[in-house]
Amino acid sequence: MKRREVLVGLAAAAAVAQGCAGQRSDPVRPSEPPPSPARFTDQIALPKPSVAGTVSLEDAIQRRRSVRTFRPDPLPVGTIGQLLWAGQGVTAPDGRRAAPSAGASYPLELYTVTAAEVMHYLPDGHRAETRATSDLRPQLKAAALDQASVGAAPLVIVVAAEPGRLSQRYGDRAGAYTDIEVGHAAQNIALQAVANGLASVPIAALDAPRTSMILGLPSGQTVVYLLPVGFAA
Ligand SMILES: Cc1cc2nc3c(=O)[nH]c(=O)nc-3n(C[C@H](O)[C@H](O)[C@H](O)COP(=O)(O)O)c2cc1C
Question: In angstroms, rounded to a whole number, what is the distance separating the alpha carbons of residues 8 and 13?
């Protein structure tokens, strides 16, 4: 089934489950304003991630290089889901994830930016929710010192962080710990990309407040890394 079909199907199922209370034409609550165009509630269940790849870890480490030119071919939703799983997927019954986290606090959020939309990864249940339905890559590129890789890759994975989730427990170290976690997640994604025949580059030379604003991140969250991903040109 195509991804859009899955999305539409899930949206329909959700509407049924909620008794259609979320529809704009709901006669029970006529005065409720329509949803803001900046907020979406569409969710998709991502295809189950593979845990049996054909490229060895050693081979992926050996072959990983920062690549900055990509073919424009869009990536299948299953591949995008696999990359997200490598970065922050749930890998244990108690909710622990693919990358380590200080005190299992999980301050990271992953977003995907493609020509079609911006999605937010929901590790619980390996799902994603739509956050925007336009191509934000040109704006991201401009906010990342105009680096061509950001505008050219068919997929940009955004690693955002909310250090506040660590502050109470770790005080002054929250920021450093968060940045360390970003590195763990980004490396997992970079190696997963290689294992899937793809290439990537980690981009930290960016205007974080501007990038966060473009993506409409919730307050307290900030972009740390952009990972353009695609087939090497
Ligand atoms: C913290 C950090 C920030 C980076 N920022 C950028 C960047 O803004 N743009 C870019 O093209 N590469 C960036 N890189 C990639 C490095 O240039 C690259 O890792 C380095 O040249 C070594 O090459 P390799 O990754 O192929 O081993 C960054 C790497 C790291 C670790």
Answer: 9
